[in-house]
Amino acid sequence: KSKPDKRIILGCQKAARGEIIQMRPQFMKAATGVFVILSFVPLSEFLDISSVDMMKGPDESNKKQHRTAMFNSDYLIVRRGQEFQVRISFNRPYKPATDTFAVEFVIGSSPQYSKGTYIPVFPTKERQSSWEGRVVDAADLTVTMGVTPAANCIVGKYHMYVAVKTPFGIRRTRWDKSQDLYVLFNPWGPDDAVFLDDESERQECVMTEMGIIYHGSYDDIAERNWNYGQFNYGVLDACLYIMDRSDMPITNRGDPMKVTRKASAMLNSRDDDGVLVGNWSGDYTYGVAPTSWTGSTDILLTYASSKMPVSFAQCWVYAAVFNTFLRCLGIPSRVVTNFFSAHDNDGNLKTDIILDESGRIDRVRTRDTIWNYHCWNECYMSRPDLPTGFGGWQVVDATPQETSDGMYRCGPASVQAIKHGHICFPFDAAFVFAEVNSDVVFYTRSKDGSLEPVKVNRTHVGRMVLTKTPGDVTRRDITDQYKFPEGSTEERTVLEKAEQYGCGRDKSDLPEADVDLVLPAMEISVGDDFELSLEFVNRSGERRTVDAYINGSVVYYTGVTSSEFLFSNPTVTIEPNKSEKGVLICFLTGGNLKKGDAELRFCVLQVLIPGNSSLTWTEYFIPQRAGSSRLMASLDCPALRQVYGTAPVTIGDRSL
């Protein structure tokens, strides 16, 4: 026709806008070309989608059954390997014999069926994909569709569409962000790699938001409360952003081994602009002191919004934020503290302490250190890459200590492999083995550079490993999960096995010393004066003359020396089977103060707090949910770190 029918023009305009139109094509060849003549068919003739209900309310079945109701999110969040339901309304009753439709899920920028990033789910048994589908209920115009994601599917955020087959092609709903959904790991799913068959452990290591991190020293253990906040608004998106930022292939994000290994690198900023900047210098001018953080939420949201690493962190901050990441994605995890933790810098599985001729530690040549404590994470998963029996708890560590495969990361390393000396197993089992089993070897260095061992301590490292007790606020000693009792037959067998894999133990047969030096245990408050009294005990039947080297240094918990304030080399004579005790030095903590130095300055509250005074502060907030929790507060002040406190609180429904 010289002038197209108005219906054709209207139909073409709708098609150009992406709208669904009903047409029956008839072709007619004319001298001037080929034209398509369209005639409209009633919409009721074919199945059409009216609306989709994701059933995502906090009180609806999906979030309750998938244990995701605590997430502060408007989206549907489900766990893989477990059915969830979607309610679809059509323009007419669904006829299984003649109607064909599918619910489609896509993830990533280039969805492909072969890569598991495009998944069509069908309602009939005759046609199924990797995700199972079924019609749960069909009434009037509504069909309730049950969808079960594969137990090994990709974890992340999916777009969902509903597609209907017609004689003229596929009609598909447009993308609607309200129909997006998140799929997480499922520790309740028997077929999931992170399945944990212990409900008390699942509640603690997946669902619990408030935790306790242990620090201090072996004989003076302190507690630090932490709000993991894995269900807080924006945290799930921040965790997924971390994987996006790492350029992790979307197809790897269903494997907990690959996810945790990549995340252990991304939680620190050393080589990939990851989440946290480490700082052990004591100068936190351009960031937040590690001791000031009380939770993970601010850190993760700041990183996701600024796209820049957050300052600053030390080992417990890395472990706490990593714990949030793991629990948020559904991987069971806990923070673990190892007291007297060895940092084996050169990979010889020994901690080498080199002394110069004066008795001082040679800080240039001594690269290994022993931390008063070190925090890492354990996460629970199967290990199909290892022999049977080495799944379960795995060590992962985000603190940047040493590189692994070219990046600052550690793990996952099987705890069972560490306990039984299989230090060749991936990943980084040898490094973690040294952290809990390393021999401490002291050497004297002569003028010609030769080293001579003078003392070997085989029981100092890995003195105790602690984590929080599930469902309680007490600590749980899990040292026996990492090592057999010191001196036992099993321990000797493990060490012999480790030697076969390259563990370099020192077998020097050194004479046993018959003079002991006893250092007193003292509890000293800030600002107090104190005396250091040493006792020399002669256990021999002869008089002994001891040339002692006494060194006093300010040392960080990582074993790194800040400054030396004392060096003395007294000569002490001790009669047979006697002891000699005396005051070595008296420490006076007073001194001349400049004007104003008696006050704490630069507090977050931006007030001055005179000595021996108190401050009352009122803060208003809106709780997110009812139940028992803990209120935490910290004071950030350069003059006095680690000032914080906690109080238990119970929030009733009326408070919300």
From TrEMBL:
Cofactor comment: Binds 1 Ca(2+) ion per subunit.
MF GO annotations: metal ion binding; protein-glutamine gamma-glutamyltransferase activity
Residues that bind Ca(2+): 437, 439, 486, 491
Residue positions of the active site: 315, 374, 397
InterPro entries: Ig-like_fold (IPR013783), Ig_E-set (IPR014756), Papain-like_cys_pep_sf (IPR038765), Transglutaminase (IPR050779), Transglutaminase-like (IPR002931), Transglutaminase-like_sf (IPR036985), Transglutaminase_animal (IPR023608), Transglutaminase_C (IPR008958)
Residues of the Transglutaminase-like domain: 307-400
Pfam families with a match to the protein in the record: Transglut_C (PF00927), Transglut_core (PF01841), Transglut_N (PF00868)
EC number per UniProt: 2.3.2.13
Cofactor: Ca(2+)
Record-level GO BP terms: blood coagulation, fibrin clot formation; nervous system development
Keywords in alphabetical order: Acyltransferase, Calcium, Metal-binding, Transferase
Similarity-based family: Belongs to the transglutaminase superfamily. Transglutaminase family.
The protein, known as: protein-glutamine gamma-glutamyltransferase
The species this protein was found in: Cyclopterus lumpus (Lumpsucker)
